[in-house]
Design a protein that fits this description.
The longest helix is centred in the last third of the chain and has 28 residues. By secondary structure, the chain is mainly alpha-helical. The N and C termini lie far apart (about 40 Å). It has one domain: dinb family like domain (Four Helix Bundle (Hemerythrin (Met), subunit A)). The C terminus is likely disordered. The chain contains 7 helices and no strands. α1 runs parallel beside α7 and α4 packs parallel to α6. This is DinB family protein. Pfam families: DinB_2 (PF12867). It comes from Dyadobacter sandarakinus.
């Protein structure tokens, strides 16, 4: 058995969850984000939901947390609401591209850090300042991506189902007429 056989399997899962076109559970993160415009990224389907832009920022934040912990940074943490769920009241083309680029870069950095690990024993070590192992943390980030890819897909579908003009993506009513098709996410 290879010294980092499990790490290599985890890298495959991290990559599949992020960008595979054949993930068995549904759309990967990249697939879920495909076709999202800046107006869609800033839209809320109700006053108490996050926008797609906020979700992507949140995903990036937790990837950075994971990378910093793998690098051994015991002090790094996400303690403020703005670090975890930054608000984006208006998202223009430049902002949306930057948010997506940061997610992409965090993916590359996460995979790079995982590739540097020399053996599977690292996975059983505990994350500094936490009561769980790196194995749990890394699988958690995979599960986090799956959850949020589904959330993005639902928001995207709801926004498209509202049949609004691009300029109308601002005020949403919880009673909107959503798409009545059977393709649910």
């Amino acid at each position: 058995m290879e010294a980092k056989e499990e790490i290599l399997r985890i890298i495959d899962l991290v990559n599949d969850t992020y960008e595979s076109e054949e993930a068995w559970y549904g759309p990967s993160v990249v697939e879920a984000l495909r076709g999202v415009t800046p107006k869609m990224a800033e839209a809320r389907i109700s006053t108490n939901t996050h926008s797609i832009a906020e979700i992507v920022y949140h995903m990036t934040t937790w990837r950075i947390f994971t990378v910093r912990k793998i690098q051994g940074d015991a002090e790094f943490d996400i303690k403020t609401q703005d670090k975890d769920w930054k608000k984006f009241p208006v998202v223009d083309e430049f902002e949306w591209e930057a948010i997506q680029m940061e997610l992409s870069l965090s993916q590359e950095e996460l995979v790079s850090e995982l590739e540097k690990l020399e053996d599977d024993g690292f996975l059983e070590e505990f994350v500094p300042g936490r009561d769980y192992s790196y194995y749990t943390l890394i699988h958690g980030i995979i599960q986090h991506d799956i959850y949020h890819a589904g959330q993005i897909s639902l928001i995207k579908k709801a926004v498209k189902g509202m049949h609004l003009e691009e300029d109308d993506f601002g005020a949403f009513d919880d009673r909107s007429d959503f798409d009545s098709g059977t393709d649910y996410y």
